[in-house]
Amino acid sequence: MVFSQLAAVAGAQEAPPQVRVWLHPEGQLPYGVPVRVWFEVSQDAYVVIGRVSGDGRVSVLYPLGAGPVLVRPGAPRVASNAGGNVPGSFRASERAGYVFALASRSPIDIRALRNVFAGRYRVSGWQDPDWLVQQLAAASLWDAD
C-alpha cells in the first residue's frame, strides 16, 4: 500500500506541495522481490519517503543524508536507501506494510527522524497511516517563529 499525506503549515496561503509515490513492480508482490520506490513533486518541496514494514519497523528511504533536501518538480526520482541491494528499494516481506511520503515547503528535520527510528523504532499504531503521518509531521516539521 502506498500512502501520502500533505502536512499543512498554519497560516499557509498557497496550496501545499503534493508528492506522488509509486512502486515498481506494482500489485501484489511475492516474498523477497526487490521493490523500487519512485516519487515526484508538484512544486519545490522538502520530501521524506519512508516505509513501515509488516512488523511496524519504520525506515527512511529518502533522503540518505541527515539534512533536508529540496526537491524540484519536473522529473520522477528514485528514492535512495543505503540498506537495500538496489538503490531506492526494499524487499517485499510476508506481512503487509506501506510506504509514506511527507512534503513541505519548510525543511523537514531528517536528523530527528533518523534518531528516533535508528533502524529499531516500531510504531504501535502502524496500521493507521493517517495517525503515523500526523505523528511524523509533528515531530519533523518546525516553524521559524
Overview of the structural elements:
This protein has 145 residues and is of the alpha+beta class. The protein has one domain (2-140). It has 2 helices and 9 strands, in the order E-E-E-E-E-E-E-E-E-H-H. Strands 1, 4, 5, 6 and 9 form a 5-stranded mixed beta sheet that branches. Strands 2, 3, 7 and 8 form a 4-stranded antiparallel beta sheet that branches. A hairpin with a 5-residue loop joins strand 4 and strand 5 (58-62). The radius of gyration is 14 Å and the shape is globular. The model has no long low-confidence stretch (mean pLDDT 74).
Could you provide a short overview of the structure?
With about 140 residues, the protein is of the alpha+beta class. The chain has helices at about 110-115, 130-140, and strands at about 1-5, 20-25, 35-40, 45-50, 60, 70, 75-80, 90, 100-105.
> How many helix segments?
2
What is the chain-wise order of helices and strands?
A: EEEEEEEEEHH
Amount of helix = 10-25%
Strand content: 25-35%
Mean residue pLDDT: 74
Specify the overall morphology: globular
Distance between the termini: 36 Å
**Number of beta-strand segments:** 9
Topology, element by element:
Blueprint: E1 2-6, E2 19-24, E3 34-41, E4 45-52, E5 58-62, E6 70-71, E7 77-78, E8 89-91, E9 98-104, H1 110-117, H2 129-140
Parallel strand pairs: 1-9
Antiparallel strand pairs: 2-3, 3-7, 3-8, 4-5, 4-6, 4-9
